Amino acid sequence: MKLETRSVVKRYGAFHALDKASFQTGDDARVVVLLGPSGGGKSTMLRVLGGLLVPEEGSVLVDEEELPHEAEGALRVLRQNGFVFQGYNLFPHLTALQNVTLPLTAVHGQTETAARQRAVELLTRLGLAEHMRKRPAELSGGQQQRAAIARALASKPRLLLLDEPTSALDPVMTGEVLDVIRELVQEGQQIVLATHELSFARQIADWVVFLAKGSVFESCPAVKFFDDPTSSFAKDYLTAVTKYR
Length: 245
Ligand code: ADP
What we know:
- By secondary structure, the chain is α/β, with parallel strands linked by helices.
- It has nine helices and ten strands.
- The strands form two sheets. The protein has a six-stranded mixed beta sheet, with helices on both faces.
- Strand 4 (57-62) and strand 5 form a beta hairpin.
- The protein folds into two domains: 3-81 and 157-243, Rossmann fold, CATH 3.40.50; 91-156, no CATH class.
- The chain has helices at residues 42-50, 71-80, 96-106, 112-125, 141-153, 171-186, 198-204, 222-227, 232-244; strands at 3-12, 15-24, 31-35, 57-62, 65-66, 82-84, 160-163, 191-194, 207-212, 215-221.
- Adenosine-5'-diphosphate is lined by residues 12, 15, 17, 36, 38-44, 194.
């Protein structure tokens, strides 16, 4: 995939979460990782790229095609993509299986049988075969996050957008979720990931976009970013994160 933003502005009230943010990836970046300090705009950028938020100004292009600004077009783009957030966002009153089937029947118009078949296949692949009839409260954090990934993958998304998917997890559960993401990358899933997991980002990213204060300070192949970042912001960030890990 190729991602591009041109002078994107996203405001919350008077505050500019993205302030004329521009970048362009290479043509075939399969895993784009958004890095940067907290509050820098990663999460907002991820939502804008996936069509969950429409910017007030500027344009967003996925594979050279501009994302629509009007509501109906934006919804169409949103439905092509899958999101996973930090806090799982599973429905607490539904089982893991029901959490995965519901969007397929309610949003994507699949039959109950087809949705169930797809959900069972995915949950099994993500190691949840024995847990699919449990509700979120009966699952560990790592299992809940894997169920959330299954739900996001169920409709075969064009882009899978992961917003700090491991930040609420302990190291063991983090490892489980990172293994799942690594497998998806190997299968060719196109991924946009906002994370603080630098060593993981280094292993899987093709391209890094570094954001701070709502602007893009660096957009380059991952190898270049980790070996020889250009901006002083990125250099300081890498030094600080490495020092405290
Ligand atoms: P990051 O993911 O890098 O931590 P975010 O995109 O979440 O950054 O946030 C960027 C800025 O926008 C932050 O200063 C944050 O407080 C602000 N922000 C994010 N979401 C909202 C919101 N819904 N309402 C008001 N301010 C927000």
